[in-house]
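Request:
Um, any thoughts?
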Amino acid sequence: MTRILRNDFQRYNAFEEEADDMDHDDYGWKIIHTDVFRFPSHKSLFCSVLGVGSQFLALATGIIVMALSGLFNVHNHGAMNTAACILYAFTSWIAGYVSCKMYRKMGGENWVWNINLTTCLFGLPFFVIWSLINTVAWAYHSTQALPITTIMLLGAMWLLVGYPLTVIGGIFGKNMAGGFDAPCRTKNIPREIPDVPLYKSTAAHMLIGGFLPFSAISVELYYIFATLWGREQYTLYGVLFTVFVILISVTVCISIALTYFQLSAEDYRWWWRSIFSAGSSGGFVFLYALFYYYERSNMTGMLQTVEFFGYTLLSCYVFFLVLGTVSFFAALKFVRYIYVNIKMD
Protein backbone atom coordinates (compact mmCIF):
# COMPACT_ATOMS: atom_id res chain seq x y z
CA MET A 1 0.00 0.00 0.00
CA THR A 2 2.86 2.40 0.79
CA ARG A 3 4.46 1.75 -2.61
CA ILE A 4 1.13 2.23 -4.40
CA LEU A 5 0.52 5.55 -2.65
CA ARG A 6 4.03 6.73 -3.43
CA ASN A 7 3.45 5.98 -7.11
CA ASP A 8 0.10 7.77 -6.99
CA PHE A 9 1.66 10.87 -5.42
CA GLN A 10 4.38 10.95 -8.04
CA ARG A 11 1.90 10.51 -10.88
CA TYR A 12 -0.61 13.07 -9.62
CA ASN A 13 1.99 15.68 -8.69
CA ALA A 14 4.03 15.33 -11.87
CA PHE A 15 3.74 18.00 -14.53
CA GLU A 16 1.55 20.16 -12.28
CA GLU A 17 2.45 23.24 -14.30
CA GLU A 18 1.48 21.68 -17.64
CA ALA A 19 -2.26 21.78 -18.18
CA ASP A 20 -2.37 18.99 -20.75
CA ASP A 21 -0.45 16.58 -18.60
CA MET A 22 -2.57 17.51 -15.61
CA ASP A 23 -5.76 16.70 -17.47
CA HIS A 24 -4.30 13.38 -18.54
CA ASP A 25 -3.26 12.43 -15.03
CA ASP A 26 -6.42 13.64 -13.31
CA TYR A 27 -8.23 10.35 -12.75
CA GLY A 28 -8.73 7.78 -9.99
CA TRP A 29 -9.09 9.04 -6.45
CA LYS A 30 -7.76 12.52 -7.26
CA ILE A 31 -10.65 13.37 -9.57
CA ILE A 32 -13.16 13.14 -6.68
CA HIS A 33 -11.26 15.58 -4.44
CA THR A 34 -14.20 18.04 -4.59
CA ASP A 35 -16.62 15.39 -3.25
CA VAL A 36 -14.60 13.16 -0.95
CA PHE A 37 -15.24 15.38 2.08
CA ARG A 38 -18.95 15.78 1.38
CA PHE A 39 -20.63 15.02 4.70
CA PRO A 40 -22.77 11.87 4.91
CA SER A 41 -26.53 11.70 5.24
CA HIS A 42 -28.08 11.30 8.70
CA LYS A 43 -25.22 13.16 10.38
CA SER A 44 -26.69 12.96 13.87
CA LEU A 45 -27.04 9.17 13.76
CA PHE A 46 -23.59 8.86 12.18
CA CYS A 47 -21.95 10.86 14.95
CA SER A 48 -23.89 8.99 17.63
CA VAL A 49 -22.48 5.70 16.34
CA LEU A 50 -18.97 7.15 16.61
CA GLY A 51 -19.63 8.43 20.13
CA VAL A 52 -21.04 5.18 21.52
CA GLY A 53 -18.38 3.17 19.69
CA SER A 54 -15.64 5.28 21.28
CA GLN A 55 -17.23 4.77 24.69
CA PHE A 56 -17.28 0.98 24.34
CA LEU A 57 -13.73 0.97 23.03
CA ALA A 58 -12.64 2.73 26.22
CA LEU A 59 -14.84 0.41 28.32
CA ALA A 60 -13.38 -2.75 26.74
CA THR A 61 -9.85 -1.46 27.23
CA GLY A 62 -10.60 -0.67 30.87
CA ILE A 63 -12.09 -4.11 31.54
CA ILE A 64 -9.10 -5.90 29.98
CA VAL A 65 -6.60 -3.74 31.89
CA MET A 66 -8.44 -4.42 35.15
CA ALA A 67 -8.42 -8.14 34.38
CA LEU A 68 -4.69 -8.03 33.68
CA SER A 69 -4.21 -6.30 37.03
CA GLY A 70 -5.81 -9.26 38.81
CA LEU A 71 -8.88 -7.38 40.04
CA PHE A 72 -11.32 -10.12 39.01
CA ASN A 73 -11.80 -13.56 40.54
CA VAL A 74 -12.06 -16.22 37.84
CA HIS A 75 -14.77 -17.97 39.87
CA ASN A 76 -16.90 -14.84 40.19
CA HIS A 77 -18.28 -13.41 36.93
CA GLY A 78 -20.43 -10.98 38.88
CA ALA A 79 -17.46 -8.78 39.72
CA MET A 80 -16.73 -8.21 36.04
CA ASN A 81 -20.40 -7.50 35.32
CA THR A 82 -20.48 -4.95 38.12
CA ALA A 83 -17.30 -3.30 36.87
CA ALA A 84 -18.74 -3.13 33.35
CA CYS A 85 -21.91 -1.40 34.59
CA ILE A 86 -19.93 1.14 36.60
CA LEU A 87 -17.48 1.80 33.77
CA TYR A 88 -20.37 2.20 31.31
CA ALA A 89 -21.88 4.90 33.50
CA PHE A 90 -18.64 6.77 34.09
CA THR A 91 -17.46 6.60 30.46
CA SER A 92 -20.70 8.04 29.14
CA TRP A 93 -19.04 11.43 28.82
CA ILE A 94 -16.85 9.98 26.05
CA ALA A 95 -19.92 9.16 23.96
CA GLY A 96 -21.36 12.65 24.41
CA TYR A 97 -18.04 14.37 23.77
CA VAL A 98 -17.08 12.49 20.59
CA SER A 99 -20.58 12.53 19.14
CA CYS A 100 -21.35 16.19 19.74
CA LYS A 101 -17.89 17.39 18.71
CA MET A 102 -18.06 15.52 15.41
CA TYR A 103 -21.64 16.65 14.87
CA ARG A 104 -20.73 20.32 15.26
CA LYS A 105 -17.69 19.88 13.01
CA MET A 106 -20.06 18.64 10.32
CA GLY A 107 -22.21 21.73 10.71
CA GLY A 108 -24.97 20.18 12.81
CA GLU A 109 -27.14 22.56 14.83
CA ASN A 110 -29.53 20.40 16.84
CA TRP A 111 -26.95 19.21 19.37
CA VAL A 112 -29.55 18.49 22.06
CA TRP A 113 -31.21 15.89 19.83
CA ASN A 114 -27.76 14.48 19.05
CA ILE A 115 -27.02 13.98 22.76
CA ASN A 116 -30.35 12.25 23.38
CA LEU A 117 -29.86 10.04 20.34
CA THR A 118 -26.39 9.11 21.59
CA THR A 119 -27.84 8.16 24.96
CA CYS A 120 -30.53 5.95 23.42
CA LEU A 121 -28.42 4.34 20.70
CA PHE A 122 -27.29 1.53 22.99
CA GLY A 123 -29.39 2.16 26.09
CA LEU A 124 -32.74 1.62 24.38
CA PRO A 125 -31.92 -1.72 22.65
CA PHE A 126 -30.25 -2.91 25.84
CA PHE A 127 -33.31 -2.05 27.95
CA VAL A 128 -35.71 -3.79 25.54
CA ILE A 129 -33.68 -7.00 25.29
CA TRP A 130 -32.79 -7.07 28.98
CA SER A 131 -36.47 -6.53 29.94
CA LEU A 132 -37.47 -9.50 27.81
CA ILE A 133 -34.76 -11.71 29.32
CA ASN A 134 -35.55 -10.66 32.88
CA THR A 135 -39.29 -11.16 32.36
CA VAL A 136 -38.73 -14.70 31.11
CA ALA A 137 -36.39 -15.37 34.05
CA TRP A 138 -39.05 -14.10 36.47
CA ALA A 139 -41.66 -16.34 34.82
CA TYR A 140 -39.38 -19.36 35.33
CA HIS A 141 -38.55 -18.27 38.91
CA SER A 142 -34.87 -18.29 37.97
CA THR A 143 -32.12 -16.85 40.11
CA GLN A 144 -30.88 -15.09 36.97
CA ALA A 145 -33.74 -12.59 37.36
CA LEU A 146 -32.61 -9.35 38.96
CA PRO A 147 -34.56 -8.23 42.03
CA ILE A 148 -36.42 -4.95 41.96
CA THR A 149 -33.88 -3.27 44.25
CA THR A 150 -31.01 -4.02 41.85
CA ILE A 151 -33.09 -2.75 38.93
CA MET A 152 -33.80 0.50 40.75
CA LEU A 153 -30.12 0.87 41.62
CA LEU A 154 -29.05 0.41 38.00
CA GLY A 155 -31.74 2.83 36.83
CA ALA A 156 -30.61 5.43 39.35
CA MET A 157 -26.99 4.99 38.24
CA TRP A 158 -27.94 5.70 34.63
CA LEU A 159 -30.25 8.59 35.54
CA LEU A 160 -27.91 10.27 38.03
CA VAL A 161 -24.51 9.42 36.53
CA GLY A 162 -24.67 8.09 32.97
CA TYR A 163 -27.07 10.55 31.36
CA PRO A 164 -25.71 13.69 33.09
CA LEU A 165 -22.15 12.75 32.08
CA THR A 166 -23.32 12.28 28.49
CA VAL A 167 -24.82 15.78 28.53
CA ILE A 168 -21.70 17.28 30.12
CA GLY A 169 -19.45 15.53 27.59
CA GLY A 170 -21.69 16.76 24.78
CA ILE A 171 -21.51 20.35 26.00
CA PHE A 172 -17.72 20.20 26.19
CA GLY A 173 -17.57 18.61 22.75
CA LYS A 174 -19.85 21.26 21.27
CA ASN A 175 -17.82 24.11 22.73
CA MET A 176 -14.46 22.63 21.79
CA ALA A 177 -15.39 21.71 18.22
CA GLY A 178 -13.64 23.74 15.56
CA GLY A 179 -14.11 23.56 11.83
CA PHE A 180 -13.78 20.28 9.98
CA ASP A 181 -10.74 21.71 8.19
CA ALA A 182 -10.98 19.56 5.07
CA PRO A 183 -7.91 19.78 2.81
CA CYS A 184 -10.16 20.02 -0.28
CA ARG A 185 -13.01 22.35 -1.13
CA THR A 186 -16.38 20.63 -1.63
CA LYS A 187 -18.53 21.65 -4.60
CA ASN A 188 -22.24 22.29 -4.22
CA ILE A 189 -23.26 19.82 -6.92
CA PRO A 190 -22.20 16.23 -6.23
CA ARG A 191 -20.33 14.32 -8.89
CA GLU A 192 -22.01 11.38 -10.61
CA ILE A 193 -20.69 8.06 -9.33
CA PRO A 194 -19.78 5.52 -12.03
CA ASP A 195 -20.99 1.95 -11.89
CA VAL A 196 -18.66 -0.42 -10.06
CA PRO A 197 -18.20 -4.17 -10.46
CA LEU A 198 -19.63 -6.54 -7.88
CA TYR A 199 -16.30 -7.12 -6.12
CA LYS A 200 -16.11 -3.38 -5.33
CA SER A 201 -19.68 -3.11 -4.04
CA THR A 202 -20.75 -2.40 -0.49
CA ALA A 203 -21.73 -6.05 0.07
CA ALA A 204 -18.29 -7.26 -1.04
CA HIS A 205 -16.55 -4.73 1.22
CA MET A 206 -18.70 -5.82 4.16
CA LEU A 207 -17.88 -9.46 3.47
CA ILE A 208 -14.13 -8.85 3.33
CA GLY A 209 -14.02 -6.15 6.01
CA GLY A 210 -16.06 -8.25 8.41
CA PHE A 211 -14.43 -11.64 7.87
CA LEU A 212 -10.79 -10.59 8.31
CA PRO A 213 -11.21 -9.01 11.79
CA PHE A 214 -13.41 -11.94 12.78
CA SER A 215 -10.74 -14.42 11.69
CA ALA A 216 -8.30 -12.70 14.06
CA ILE A 217 -10.47 -13.54 17.08
CA SER A 218 -12.28 -16.69 15.97
CA VAL A 219 -10.12 -19.05 18.06
CA GLU A 220 -10.40 -16.91 21.18
CA LEU A 221 -14.16 -16.68 20.77
CA TYR A 222 -14.55 -20.36 21.60
CA TYR A 223 -12.89 -19.94 25.00
CA ILE A 224 -14.93 -16.81 25.72
CA PHE A 225 -18.20 -18.54 24.84
CA ALA A 226 -17.20 -21.63 26.83
CA THR A 227 -16.53 -19.39 29.85
CA LEU A 228 -19.73 -17.37 29.57
CA TRP A 229 -22.08 -20.21 28.66
CA GLY A 230 -20.20 -23.28 29.84
CA ARG A 231 -18.17 -24.38 32.82
CA GLU A 232 -14.72 -23.27 31.69
CA GLN A 233 -12.65 -20.75 33.66
CA TYR A 234 -10.93 -18.09 31.57
CA THR A 235 -7.58 -16.92 32.93
CA LEU A 236 -5.56 -16.03 29.81
CA TYR A 237 -6.13 -12.28 30.01
CA GLY A 238 -2.70 -11.58 28.54
CA VAL A 239 -3.65 -13.55 25.44
CA LEU A 240 -6.99 -11.73 25.36
CA PHE A 241 -5.23 -8.37 25.41
CA THR A 242 -2.94 -9.47 22.57
CA VAL A 243 -5.91 -10.63 20.51
CA PHE A 244 -7.67 -7.34 21.23
CA VAL A 245 -4.68 -5.38 19.91
CA ILE A 246 -4.51 -7.62 16.83
CA LEU A 247 -8.23 -7.10 16.23
CA ILE A 248 -7.88 -3.31 16.30
CA SER A 249 -4.78 -3.44 14.08
CA VAL A 250 -6.44 -5.68 11.48
CA THR A 251 -9.50 -3.42 11.48
CA VAL A 252 -7.36 -0.34 10.84
CA CYS A 253 -5.43 -2.00 8.02
CA ILE A 254 -8.46 -3.45 6.24
CA SER A 255 -10.33 -0.15 6.56
CA ILE A 256 -7.50 1.77 4.90
CA ALA A 257 -7.20 -0.77 2.09
CA LEU A 258 -10.94 -0.92 1.36
CA THR A 259 -11.24 2.87 1.47
CA TYR A 260 -8.41 3.20 -1.05
CA PHE A 261 -10.08 0.72 -3.41
CA GLN A 262 -13.37 2.58 -3.10
CA LEU A 263 -11.86 5.99 -3.80
CA SER A 264 -9.87 4.58 -6.72
CA ALA A 265 -13.20 3.51 -8.23
CA GLU A 266 -14.25 7.21 -8.01
CA ASP A 267 -16.82 6.48 -5.31
CA TYR A 268 -16.66 9.15 -2.60
CA ARG A 269 -19.37 7.71 -0.33
CA TRP A 270 -16.85 6.26 2.09
CA TRP A 271 -18.26 7.62 5.35
CA TRP A 272 -20.98 5.11 6.12
CA ARG A 273 -19.28 2.31 4.20
CA SER A 274 -16.19 2.53 6.41
CA ILE A 275 -18.43 1.87 9.42
CA PHE A 276 -20.38 -1.00 7.87
CA SER A 277 -17.33 -2.65 6.30
CA ALA A 278 -15.60 -3.45 9.60
CA GLY A 279 -18.77 -3.30 11.69
CA SER A 280 -20.09 -6.31 9.78
CA SER A 281 -17.75 -8.39 11.94
CA GLY A 282 -20.63 -8.39 14.41
CA GLY A 283 -22.62 -10.42 11.89
CA PHE A 284 -19.86 -13.02 11.68
CA VAL A 285 -19.75 -13.21 15.47
CA PHE A 286 -23.49 -13.89 15.47
CA LEU A 287 -23.06 -16.66 12.88
CA TYR A 288 -20.40 -18.19 15.11
CA ALA A 289 -22.79 -17.92 18.05
CA LEU A 290 -25.37 -19.91 16.07
CA PHE A 291 -22.76 -22.59 15.39
CA TYR A 292 -21.75 -22.67 19.06
CA TYR A 293 -25.34 -22.90 20.29
CA TYR A 294 -26.34 -25.79 18.02
CA GLU A 295 -23.03 -27.68 17.78
CA ARG A 296 -20.98 -26.99 20.93
CA SER A 297 -23.45 -26.32 23.73
CA ASN A 298 -26.08 -28.35 25.49
CA MET A 299 -28.46 -25.46 26.12
CA THR A 300 -32.16 -26.13 25.73
CA GLY A 301 -35.43 -24.57 26.79
CA MET A 302 -37.00 -21.15 26.51
CA LEU A 303 -34.99 -19.44 29.26
CA GLN A 304 -31.55 -20.47 28.07
CA THR A 305 -32.39 -19.72 24.44
CA VAL A 306 -33.68 -16.23 25.20
CA GLU A 307 -30.71 -15.44 27.42
CA PHE A 308 -28.15 -16.73 24.93
CA PHE A 309 -29.50 -15.00 21.84
CA GLY A 310 -30.51 -11.83 23.68
CA TYR A 311 -27.08 -11.17 25.15
CA THR A 312 -25.38 -12.38 21.96
CA LEU A 313 -27.32 -9.82 19.90
CA LEU A 314 -26.19 -7.07 22.28
CA SER A 315 -22.58 -8.27 22.08
CA CYS A 316 -22.67 -8.32 18.28
CA TYR A 317 -24.13 -4.82 18.31
CA VAL A 318 -21.22 -3.68 20.48
CA PHE A 319 -18.81 -5.30 18.01
CA PHE A 320 -20.46 -3.33 15.22
CA LEU A 321 -20.20 -0.04 17.10
CA VAL A 322 -16.59 -0.46 18.24
CA LEU A 323 -15.08 -1.82 15.03
CA GLY A 324 -17.12 0.55 12.89
CA THR A 325 -15.80 3.48 14.90
CA VAL A 326 -12.19 2.28 14.67
CA SER A 327 -12.63 1.72 10.94
CA PHE A 328 -14.03 5.19 10.31
CA PHE A 329 -11.35 7.10 12.20
CA ALA A 330 -8.66 5.07 10.43
CA ALA A 331 -10.28 5.82 7.07
CA LEU A 332 -10.64 9.52 7.94
CA LYS A 333 -6.97 9.77 8.87
CA PHE A 334 -6.01 8.01 5.65
CA VAL A 335 -8.22 10.15 3.42
CA ARG A 336 -6.88 13.35 4.97
CA TYR A 337 -3.33 12.12 4.48
CA ILE A 338 -3.61 11.30 0.78
CA TYR A 339 -5.44 14.52 -0.17
CA VAL A 340 -3.05 16.72 1.79
CA ASN A 341 -0.13 15.27 -0.17
CA ILE A 342 -1.34 16.05 -3.69
CA LYS A 343 -1.38 19.36 -5.53
CA MET A 344 -4.79 20.71 -6.48
CA ASP A 345 -5.85 22.91 -9.37
